[in-house]
Amino acid sequence: MPTQTRTESPSPTPAGLDRFNTAPAAEIERTLLACLRSLRWSHRLTDHRPYPDLDSLLAAADEAAYDLTPGDLCEALAAESLPELPEGVYAVAHTALGAAHAAYEARFGHVFVICLDGTPPTEVLNTILAAIRSRLANDPEEERVVAAEELRRLARERLTGVLRGAGL
Question: Which of the residues 24, 125, 157, 161 has the least number of beta carbons within 10 Å of its own beta carbon?
Fold first, then answer.
């Protein structure tokens, strides 16, 4: 199950993109499913290879994410988990997060997703709690749109991370 992470590393390598463009389709699809658990999304990105540059790949990833059906979103959300909290977070904070997440999941029927890219570790807990509280006020359709956008951002971050490490 993928976790929601923050990254602050160097840019992806040209070798990573080259490997992405030339690796066997089954290998790329497995890699993409670790970024976003949507068969439609992974097939679409795999089928449109090769990509001339990183911007083209990320634009295609964004477009494919925007085109996900409600069923595709359910598939992707089912594979997500709560973001990891930084070390040293008190037990009471875990309790507060658990309660907020339980309320969110009861209201919307899926795990809370948020992209924390660029969020300083000291602000992660407050950012998550504030976002859950704010998003609990959304109606289900509005929240579906917000969750889809967060999934798109997470997929983009994860894909960039894969290409950075060329871990294909």
Answer: 24
d(CA 148, CA 125): 21
Whether 118 and 160 map to the same domain: the answer is: no
At residue 92, the pLDDT reads 80
pTM of the full predicted structure?
0.84
Q: Are residues 69 and 20 in the same domain?
A: yes
pLDDT in the model for residue 81: 87
Domain membership of residue 88 (yes or no) is yes
Q: Is the pLDDT of residue 8 over 60?
A: no
> Residue 97: CA atoms inside 13 Å, Cβ hemisphere, count?
20
Q: Are 65 and 151 in contact (CB under 8 A)?
A: yes
Average pLDDT estimate for 95-101: 90
Q: How many residues does the chain have?
A: 168
